[in-house]
Design brief:
three-stranded antiparallel sheet; single chain; 5 strands; alpha+beta; two-stranded parallel ribbon
Length: 97
């Protein structure tokens, strides 16, 4: 059975990076993936799997970028492989609007 955290923590640096990305193109959705350490038996139950420690910005390929976002399948799989290679777990997908 997997542990599910009651809350998720995210660092100010990651929040600021998301904000910079959104402000860089305010008329288009920005998007990407968020990751953090995997919850496992060696991790404290109080912090397991509830901290976002990495951000992976992605290219928005949606036809109407000003009102929608879409991450292309090849890029999505590439980023998920990067997350796994770093020993992290996918924790969320973000977008700006």
């Amino acid at each position: 059975m997997a542990f599910v955290a009651d809350s998720i923590r995210i660092s100010r640096a990651i929040l600021e990076q998301m904000e910079r990305e959104a402000r860089a193109c305010p008329h288009q959705e920005c998007c990407g993936l968020l990751a953090g350490p995997a919850a496992n038996a060696a991790t404290s139950i109080h912090t397991a799997g509830n901290e976002i420690t990495a951000i992976y910005p992605a290219t928005n390929v949606a036809p109407h970028k000003q009102i929608a976002y879409e991450i292309g399948p090849k890029e999505l799989f590439r980023i998920v492989r990067l997350i796994r290679a770093a020993g992290l777990e996918l924790m969320g997908i973000y977008h700006s609007h």
